[in-house]
Automatic annotation (TrEMBL):
SUPFAM superfamilies, per the entry: Epsilon subunit of F1F0-ATP synthase N-terminal domain (SSF51344)
Protein's name according to its UniProt entry: ATP synthase epsilon chain
UniProt-listed PANTHER family: ATP SYNTHASE DELTA/EPSILON CHAIN, ATP SYNTHASE EPSILON CHAIN, CHLOROPLASTIC
Molecular function GO labels: ATP binding; proton-transporting ATP synthase activity, rotational mechanism
Membrane topology of this protein: Peripheral membrane protein
One Gene Ontology cellular component annotation held by this UniProt entry: plasma membrane
UniProt cross-references to InterPro entries, sorted A to Z: ATP_synth_F1_dsu/esu (IPR001469), ATP_synth_F1_dsu/esu_N (IPR020546), ATP_synth_F1_esu_C (IPR020547), ATPsynth_dsu/esu_N (IPR036771)
Domain ATP synthase epsilon subunit C-terminal, first and last residues per copy: 87-132
The encoding gene: atpC
Record carries keyword Ribosomal protein: no
Subunit structure and binding partners: F-type ATPases have 2 components, CF(1) - the catalytic core - and CF(0) - the membrane proton channel. CF(1) has five subunits: alpha(3), beta(3), gamma(1), delta(1), epsilon(1). CF(0) has three main subunits: a, b and c.
Function: Produces ATP from ADP in the presence of a proton gradient across the membrane.
Length: 134
């Protein structure tokens, strides 16, 4: 089999479904390039960009962490809390979210759970801005 059956799924529905030649993900343990017939694995993902490569086109999806699962038969599923295709990213909203998170980080005590939460918000916003610019 020369392609991978790829899907990116969130609690709000499927954001991506298609047959691709390669998927690049950023796992917590490092970057991974997944080709057809990859061994089965499950790996946690960073807040990052997923690149889906097929004939002549590269597509990008922003993911808010989650997991990548590779199953036998070249089936790859990414399960994540939130995901947006590059073309669906609202840049103005991400820019506002970034500024709001930066403001909260400046006001909050570093030891609080709210600070950690604001750091995640900042990462999500910066990731969306990055993916939109690809
Ligand atoms: P915001 O403060 O703008 O809501 P957030 O990081 O808190 O940002 P999430 O909780 O990660 O947002 O996502 C909530 C929903 O909104 C998800 O369905 C996500 O895909 C969508 N979403 C968030 N930001 C954007 C964006 N900039 N463009 C398009 N969809 C977005």
């Amino acid at each position: 089999m020369n392609t991978i059956s790829a899907s990116i799924v969130t609690p709000n529905g499927t954001v991506y479904e298609g047959n691709v030649h390669m998927i690049s993900v950023r796992a917590t343990g490092g970057d991974m390039g997944i080709l057809p017939n990859h061994i089965p694995i499950v790996a946690p993902l960073k807040i990052s960009a997923v690149k889906l490569k097929s004939e002549g086109i590269d597509e990008y999806v922003a993911v808010s962490g989650g997991f990548v699962e590779v199953r036998r038969g070249s089936v790859v599923t990414i399960l994540t809390e939130a995901a947006e295709r590059k073309e669906d990213i609202d840049v103005e909203r991400a820019q506002l979210a970034k500024e709001k998170a930066q403001q909260r980080l400046a006001e909050l005590n570093e030891k609080t759970a709210e600070y950690q939460e604001a750091q995640k918000e900042l990462q999500r916003a910066e990731n969306r801005l990055h993916v939109a610019s690809l």
